[in-house]
Amino acid sequence: KAGVTQTPRYLIKTRGQQVTLSCSPISGHRSVSWYQQTPGQGLQFLFEYFSETQRNKGNFPGRFSGRQFSNSRSEMNVSTLELGDSALYLCASSAFTSSGNTIYFGEGSWLTVV
Amino acid sequence: GENVGLHLPTLSVQEGDNSIINCAYSNSASDYFIWYKQESGKGPQFIIDIRSNMDKRQGQRVTVLLNKTVKHLSLQIAATQPGDSAVYFCAEYSGGYQKVTFGIGTKLQVIP
Questions:
Q1: Chain A partners of B104 at a C-beta cutoff of 8 Å?
Q2: Which residues face A23 on adjacent strands?
Q3: Is B51 close to A100, i.e. CB distance below 8 A?
Q4: Chain B, nearest residue to A101 by Cα
Q5: Integer Rg of chain A from CA
Q6: Mind listing the pLDDT tens digit for each residue in A40-62?
Q7: Where in B56-104 does DSSP place strands (E)?
Q8: pLDDT tens, A75-101?
Q9: Is pLDDT above 90 for A113?
Q10: How far is B58 from chain A (nearest CA, A)?
Q11: Which of residues 23-42 of A touch B (CB under 8 A)?
Q12: pLDDT value at position B98?
């Protein structure tokens, strides 16, 4: 079973630009969540989608947005990039099982804003 | 959810010894907890979870203990191996993803 796939793995953008990151969840998983990980702030929740609907949202500005498609694939977009947006962006997919909610992370997309 | 990533505590253990990694969580209403392992350059890997109606759960070489009285979570790794070297952090959930808070993590170094 293929894991969570994120693309691109590495990218460099300039301040003011926008970026779109993609996530393909594990087959059969309908919930996709996004996180930002930085050395200074650790891991922080961005938002979560289920069946194309945003169910939960973290405490990030409106420059951060996302969407989910009918095949459960998800994208997140960051507009008007700032230097502080440099981070590892992680996507996770999950599905409820009899033992609980198992969450699987992708390898992440490393974004550097210069 | 927020966490403050300051100086990462480090735990050094001899190969073959048992490791205990601790996590103090903040919200007494948290009802679900997960331990993750993150190796350098990789995404977090689910290790084990526990619900608030339990105080202990065992997996393969790992055990999670939950003490709700003092809001403390621990991860025990038996017979620690070099491949266990990574950053381990806990996550507490209350009411779904919106209320997720991640611990700062502990770096486990296994000495061969």
A1: 42
A2: A6, A74
A3: yes
A4: B49
A5: 14
A6: 788 899 999 999 999 888 899 99
A7: 56-58, 62-67, 72-77, 86-93, 101-102
A8: 999 999 999 999 999 999 987 765 566
A9: yes
A10: 12
A11: 33, 38-42
A12: 55
Q: CA B44 to CA B62: how far, in whole Å?
A: 16
How near does any CA of chain B get to the CA of A57, in Å?
A: 6
Q: Which residues of A touch B103 (CB under 8 A)?
A: 42
pLDDT averaged over every residue in chain A: 92
Tell whether the model's pLDDT for residue B55 goes beyond 80. Answer: yes
Residue pair B51/B59 in contact (Cβ under 8 Å)? The answer is: no
pLDDT in tens, B3-32: 434 568 899 999 999 999 999 998 898 888
Structure tokens that stand for B23 in this block: 């996590």
CA distances from B65 to B14, B55, B58, B109 (A): 22, 6, 9, 21
Q: How far is B52 from chain A (nearest CA, A)?
A: 12
